[in-house]
Amino acid sequence: MSTHKNASSDAAQPSIDYGIDRKQLKTVKERFLQVNAVRLERTQQALSDRQQVFLQLLPLLFHVNHPMLPGYVSHQTPFGVSHYTPSKEQQLAATKLARSFTYRFQPPVGQQIHGLFLMGSCGTVAQSDRSDIDIWVCHSSDVDQEGLLQLRQKCDKISAWAMSIGVEAHCFLMDSEKFKQGERANLSGEDCGSSQHFLLLDEFYRTGLLLAGRIPIWWLCPPEQESRYQDYVDTLIKKRFIPADDSLDFGNVGQIPAGEFVGAGIWQLYKGIDSPYKSTLKILLSEVYADQYPNIEPLSTGFKRAIYNKQLDVNELDPYVMVFRKLEQYLIGRNELARLELIRRCFYFKVGKALSRPQTHNVKSWQRQLLEKLTSEWQWPREHIHSLDAKDKWKVARVIAEQKDIVRELTNSYRFLLDFARRTQATALINSADMTLLGRKLYAAFERKAGKVEWINPGISNSLAEDRLNFYYVDSPASGNSYWGVSTEPLLAKDTEQHDPLKRGDHLIGLLVWCHFNGLLSSHTRCNIVNGAHDVGEFELLNLIRALQKTLPIASQYTDHGDQADTQFSRPMRPTLLQLFINISTDPLSSMRNQGIERLSDQTDSLSYSGMRENLVLNIEQVLVNSWGELITRRYDGESALLRCLRDYLQMIPPGSNKALPTLEIHCFCASRAAAISHRVEELFSDIAACYHGGNKPANSRYVLKVQHDYYILQFNEQQPTIENMGEYSDMLDYLAGNISGKQTQFSPLVFDRHCQSNNPVAALSPYMQAGNIQVFYLCQQHKADIYIIDELGVLNHFSAPCLDKNNFLTPLDLFLQSTLFRQNNETIDTQGDLNTLPQDNIKNVDYYEIINKKSGYTIIRNNPINHEGCPSFFNVQAIGSRDNNGLLLFTIYCDQKEFSEQEYGEQLYNAVAQHILQRRQSKERYPCYITDLDLSLSNEKSGDSTPTNRYLFYKKRLEQALNAALLQV
Fold this sequence. Notes:
By secondary structure, the protein is an alpha/beta fold. 39% of the residues lie in helices and 17% in strands.
């Protein structure tokens, strides 16, 4: 008896154990439809007359395919909305759009659109005429791929028509059977993709409005039967309590998997980029659910419980009010009142009804009445409401404070969810592609790193533009404090140190970029520079600002969630724009002027200026924009500023990476030679880019430039650029010959900067360098020959010789080189086999070139090979190198077959050889002798290695220097 009494006492609680009452089912359905009808009416009331037409016609547009109605694709497009017949008003509205339209009855058989649902803020306290409308277009599972394609096209066309009448509508194709199985679309700007399923279903059941079609069967499953949901709804269908074609089954919310909360957290952080207040509410809801795990009662279940208990106050059932009440209860329970105050602000801003402003209609809207009731509960004073209602006009200080509160709340909730995931060993239910995309967008918008310009206004204020900005520099040696600051208040130099700026920065460009990026700088902003310990004038300041405003993006890019933005974030980040500002607050010639020095020569190169060879690039402030929308600033100081900036530029995109170089802008507005300096730096960057990315030179090319008195060499090592100081010209020659360690294993051409080519024979010969051959260049001047030998790897060796007759040094040199080639070929045969199998490109030639010094510069002339016929015989000096037991390289020298070994003579080796040579010379003259043959086959530390030519030349030069020094002494 007691059981029967309990069952009958609650008419809206049918039990599967004791039978299902059709009347009770009808009652529950009517209650849901009653609440649905009120919310649909509220949805219409929030729209303008033109916008109401969209909602009025939406079911009809999916019900028929008519060529003159919006959305038409073809007659084969899936159509026909279940249980829908257009009203006379809807038919009349359709004829106003298409006069030829006449509705013809559509038989229910074959109807392929099972339901149309409005999602989001429709009919809620947060709806306004600016709210977008999300539409679930629920179609039959029988629709094939071609049908889905056409239906997608129809949705897009309907959305486009909606936009033309002021409605932002997003249609989502939904297959209830596939959704129930967990099949979801990939992530897009308006769709949470794979990050959540049951949370989305929870939101659908408590916010979705049935516009036309079948009801959700979830309505008819009592809250107490949620754990037996599938059995219950199967019984409803099998026992024909409801017809099979009367309902849609998306499944039940059930036990939300722990991993969804983490995915939802990531998604809401992402949505917080442009909807911070809504996202803060939603991510905290995920935190509340996670805190209640595993005993969660989702809001949708609470909503349904209220319907079953006949609690039909539509205001209390409002989805946003229900969310707020749940969050309020949670935060009060934790005594987190500061968070509660932020949540109240989020709710207030999301509703968007400014209570301090007069109402526009005679009768208060239900939303305004509800919000007044809530703010009265919160005991908000009128001044506080006035301040909140002025949010669109908030300026920097207030926006920064609000942004910090929002970001702190979003990140704290996300950390809570991550900790929850660790405790429950849950994995975020979001696929790797979506995770990567969201992660990159979040990284770009919120991640802090050195030099990155912070975004302070994520959807808080409409505009941060200021009428006036004053920039000033503080340099206080006593406190060790030096920085740039910006203020909206007028300032004198004496007041700057005590002033609290809106923003401070280490360098001026970083501060200007921050102001531009965050919208403080507009076309109407008046900018002023306060006098102080700096050299920036109004002219320089205004030119810097113009250059930034002309090219740099502003922070609104973060809110662009279109296909183009998704494409950028689907790829690794790459630099897209590089701005360099040279010599800010610096006159590079001031020190020369102070000393009374003017330009002492015709040297106009900005990197080696005047007879003093001054480097006029003293500092560089850099702005980098990347493909993810980040702006990063950096300053380079000192005489090496340009070289460090250049190295970092090359490191961005190494040669061979098949990525486009960033657009480069060079600016200089200093007091002296600004145009020449910017042109020189732009020219240098352009030439280096052409060298490494032009496709005409190998990636391992060596680029040589001159700064002040010194030469620098730039090259890539394992995709990393290095720049080394080679010293002055003679030091450079030693450096370029210094491959004795064998670091250089492939041919590497030398490319000289265009300003290094005057009075530089190495620069003149560098274009003639060829891989695989030995090239000898000689320059005869004033009875002395400078000889430059380029080996098969591009290593340069230099030495000098008397030049009474060029054959005197060329013939022994050629004998040596031919002997070296013979030995190298033998080494190759030893390691590779028969001579017949030796690759032809391993057989090297020796080419000779003469360098002629003319007034116009150096000229290179190719010479014939050395002809040994008729040349005087030479005294053969052969050296053989081998390593002792300690690994030291020792030499044995043969003079006309007489042996002199280092083991025998020790330090007196070269004196002994010199004495022997002098004894053989009839004239006893002490002219130079040359090594004509050198064997290094036993000198290699690794067996089987072929000895490169530059190593032969290195030891030849060392031996000859020692012998010739001994000849002068004995």
